[in-house]
Amino acid sequence: MVQRKFRCPNCLGVETFSGKPGEVIHVTCPSCGAEGKVAFNNISSSIKSDQISSNYKINADNITVKFGRITALESFSVKIPEDVVGLLGPNGAGKSTFIKVVLGLLKPERGKIFLTDHRRPDNLTELRDLIGYMPEHDCLIESMNAFDLVSYMGQISGMLPKDAIRRSHEVLDFVGIGEVRYRSISSYSTGMKQRVKLAQAIVHDPEILFLDEPTNGMDPFGKKEMLSLISDIAKTGKTIVVCSHLLHEVEQICNYVVILNQGRLLKTGSMKEILSGEKGRYHLELRGKNKDLEKILDILGSKYEIVSADYVIGKLIVIIKNIDSSLELFNLIKKHDVQIRSYKPDKLILEDVFIQSFKGGSANGD
């Protein structure tokens, strides 16, 4: 016998049921009475829960995918936590290939995928129940209206028709699609289509969400609303993997980052750690006469490493490294009739980290 958790689509309560591998059982939620099905296809009871840390929802172990002579993923291993995670890399880096492997749309030549403490199920019905996917490109059936489409997607993800109907109204309300839900999707703007794509991805309340370029084609106001929706979804405890080339948006909503290139992992870690910058690297703003500022810059350059220096009339802004003692720096500047107006650790932005990753440097700019 094996066990599987069942999330009620009505009250969202979670219950655990037991069954034999390959068995499909009808279940009733003890809390609200909603009915559903639980499949135990291809779930291996021999897999131990310690094969993947409970802090991680997705664990890719040594994944290799090839298309003829082209290697899309090469010995790719990564652990993705239960959080909002930015999946970054240039075009052709392997992001889409990795997503397709997790979704079961591609079979790797080598390696394994673990989801929520267990080996990823091979049965696509189970995967649809576990994962929601918002593709980058147009995938909507334009002859349908939003309500019918989202309801249909809920049913093919394992929901009963009556539950899919109720849930479709809820998620369309959530993403901001009102009465236009009964209009043909062909009449929708790009921003509205993006909202419908998000709705179909969350209608069955999956544990894991893949959002590929979720703000693509949206105006600034629509982008702001989409990012707010993603943040609200994250509060429910889901794992959300966001693929985007808009690094400032990723920095805004993600707490964890995975950067890959040419099918290999370049960098991974929490956003806070990655953007913390290098120890001993500071942003220094000085005020004084131009001749005094020029002189102090020469002195600082002889003692410390100057990363950058910008002059504005009567002001000098310096990014400086290798500072062991702030007091020693202050005393040095004080002797040369120059005021310190600002002194703080130099925090990186995600774009800095991204560029340094491809230069072979570390997140702190080494």
Task: Please give a structural write-up.
There is one protein chain. Helix 3 crosses helix 4, helix 3 runs parallel beside helix 5 (190-202) and helix 4 crosses helix 5. Residues 41-54 and 361-366 have low confidence and may be disordered. The chain has 3 domains: 2-39; 49-275, Rossmann fold; 282-346, Alpha-Beta Plaits. The protein is elongated, with a radius of gyration of 26 Å. It has a 6-stranded mixed beta sheet. Strands 6-5-8-9 form a 4-stranded antiparallel beta sheet, with helices on one face. The chain has a 4-stranded antiparallel beta sheet with strand order 16-17-15-18, covered by helices on one side. The protein is built from 11 helices and 18 strands. It has helices at residues 95-102, 124-130, 146-156, 161-175, 190-202, 220-234, 247-253, 271-275, 290-303, 326-334, 350-359, and strands at 2-7, 14-19, 24-28, 35-39, 56-67, 70-81, 84-88, 110-115, 118-119, 131-134, 208-212, 239-243, 256-261, 264-270, 282-287, 305-312, 315-321, 339-345.
Number of helical regions: 11
Q: State the end-to-end CA separation.
A: 53 Å
Shape: elongated
- What count of domains describes the coordinates? 3
Rg, Å, rounded? 26 Å
Low-confidence stretches: 41-54, 361-366
The CATH architecture designation of the largest domain is 3-Layer(aba) Sandwich
CATH class of the largest domain: Alpha Beta
SSE string, helices as H and strands as E: EEEEEEEHEEHEHHHEHEHEEHEHEEHEH
- Quickly give the structural class: alpha+beta
Largest sheet: 6 strands, mixed
Overall pLDDT metric: 84
CATH H-level name of the largest domain... which superfamily? P-loop containing nucleotide triphosphate hydrolases
